[in-house]
Amino acid sequence: MTHYFISDLHLQADRPAMTEGFLGLLDRLTDAEALYILGDFFEVWIGDDYSDALVEQIKSSLKALSNKGTDVVFMHGNRDFLMGDTFAADCGGRMMAEGSVIHVGDDSALLLHGDSLCTRDVEYMKMRQVFRNPAWIAEVLSKSIPERVALGRQVRSESKAGQQMKADDIMDVTPEEVDKALTEAGVSRMIHGHTHRPDTHRWEHHGEARERIVLGDWGDDHGWLIRWQAGSKPVLEKFGF
Fold first, then answer.
1. How many CB atoms lie within 10 A of CB 120?
2. Distance between CA atoms of 179 and 155, rounded to whole angstroms?
3. Stretch 68-96: mean pLDDT, rounded?
4. Domains of the chain in sequence order
5. Mean pLDDT for the chain?
6. How would you class 15 by CB atoms within 10 Å of its CB: exposed for 0-12, middle for 13-18, buried for 19 or more?
7. How many CA atoms does the CB half-sphere of 176 hold within 13 Å?
8. At what angle do helices 53-67 and 16-28 cross, to 10 degrees?
9. Residues with Cβ < 8 Å from 205, sequence gap 6 or more?
């Protein structure tokens, strides 16, 4: 059986080709023991009490996968930090805390969305503290759906504008933060998304071989995944649809 990992789909109603690509992938996961969705699954998420045709389609498809025996696991990203247990349960899945360690056979890996590693982006890290604050989340979820829709559009617009003003290296991970996270977790491998820079990085830290596998973001004609079976190393793949 295989463990699959995806991230940064940014699903949205006005990009149907991407949605069809994702649904097509689900149909092919006939050997999936687990599917880990490591954040930014939707372009914006305003709360589990909101639904539309896209959301219902995704729920139904993931529930069908879950009913076949696949463990469907969600992790918060920087765009869907309001996602909760209700949505996960509707998909037949569960939420997983960022920074969790999983085991595949005798091997293990630290799972993250990845934004917590980008500490050189000081402005973003300050906003991240706000967005992940339980009191702020509760306040936002107490607003009406139209108010939350407007807030989501505003945050999304400001985020895009801010990224255009930042140097590329600022929005990438801080190497020292990567090593710190691995050391604290007691593992030598990390899997994450967020940066939209798919690659497999290998290096040594105090004599220990380490690995960081970065998932790519999805487009209208392709996606990225990691395929990992017990007894073998995880493999990063780009696939078309």
1. 16
2. 31
3. 97
4. 2-240 (3.60.21.10)
5. 94
6. middle
7. 2
8. 10
9. 179, 182, 183
User: CA dihedral defined by 145, 151, 154, 157, rounded to 10 degrees?
Assistant: -70
User: How does pLDDT run across 108-160, given as a tens digit for each residue?
Assistant: 999 999 999 999 999 999 989 998 999 999 999 999 999 999 988 887 777 66
pLDDT at 68: 97
Tokens, residue 120: 């050189």
Res 161: pLDDT: 61
Instruction: Render pLDDT for 152-193 as a digit per residue (tens, 0 to 9).
Output: 888 777 766 666 555 666 779 999 999 999 999 999 999 999
Cβ contact 176:203 at 8 Å = no
Measured CA to CA, the distance from residue 111 to residue 232 in angstroms comes to 18
Helix (H, G, I), strand (E, B) or coil at 163: helix
- Helix 145-163 to helix 134-141 angle, to the nearest 10 degrees? 130
Question: Are the C-beta atoms of residues 61 and 26 closer than 8 Å to each other?
Answer: yes
Q: Are strands 2-6 and 222-229 parallel, antiparallel or unpaired?
A: antiparallel
- In the sheet with 107-111, reading across from the earlier edge strand, the strands are 100-104, 107-111, 189-192, 208-214, 199-205
